[in-house]
Amino acid sequence: MVTPRSASSPLPEHTPDPIDFAALSLLPTWCRLPVAEALRAGEPAHAVFARFAALHWPHEPEAIAAIREKARAALERAAAAALTPICWSDARYPAALAAIVDPPPMLWTIGDAAALDGTLVAIVGSRAASPYALSVAASLAADLASRGVAIVSGLARGVDSAAHRGALDADGVTIGVLGSGADVIYPPEHGSLARDIARRGLVASELVPATPPLAHFFPMRNRIISGLSRAVVVIEAGEKSGSLITARCALEQGRDVLAVPGNVLSGRNRGAHALLRDGAKIVESADDILEELGMCTPLRTRERDASAERPRDPVLESLSPGEASDLDEIAERSGLPPARLLPRLMELELAGAIARIGGGRFIRVDRPC
Whole-prediction pTM value? Predict the structure, then answer.
């Protein structure tokens, strides 16, 4: 944990002070891009702050002093809340995020910064998600997490929270990016989920501690969700969904964008289907995502054989790799009525465990990935 230094203790020029980076994060949003350009050019953080603060408050030295005091108070609050600030100059600052045009000068985090290492994939979608979307989000996240991929999302209601929980249920790593201070969990009912995420991964924000969840912060945080990730998967996004902002950020940042197809009648999926029409890769299983990333890895070895603990799946057992079966045959073998059989077949198809072939028949798939 970085502790703020007193004003009376001068710093050598080569030692960045976290107060300078915290102060940079308190500058107006129009400063984000030029501040990043200045830092990339090697300008010291304290000089960058002094220059842009003077531009914004040219005749208000007391305003500039107040910003530095707020930065100092933010670091003190972070220490009290067990938050870890990760400055632009910190070796732990994620390289993928540093590569976007307007990275935050500082990330405020709680959890394990090692979660930022490795392969990260974002899963985002509707807050008012259908049961189908929640199931797909949890399933994809669990399958990816089981293969060592960390899941990034926004800790929002709906698809976001389902993705986080899916990764956690698979004993995987997940990262929640907030549109508020990292010590202000929104929505409030996700407090326990945020704590679970911090134990297994990381909760992060570019906003100083105690910042409330104001509406304009959420589009800003979407660039961080995509900036951390190698790919963004969109599930059930409407025409005006915030998930489309994340997808647009991903495209601008050179990240892969993928989408899960859905019901064409409900109107919930028009945004995701628009992405597919524009060339986004269709996602039916985690293997589609791994293939897009050039990865093909086996399920992570667990300390105990989790497969032995799972109940047997009557639908999978009724199918075989070499024999196609129609619905009537599957229903007879599995003992499931159509109302339960059809949703289960859809789940298994999305998970890549079975495949649909001609004539409404299904076949079991044994994939190497």
Answer: 0.75
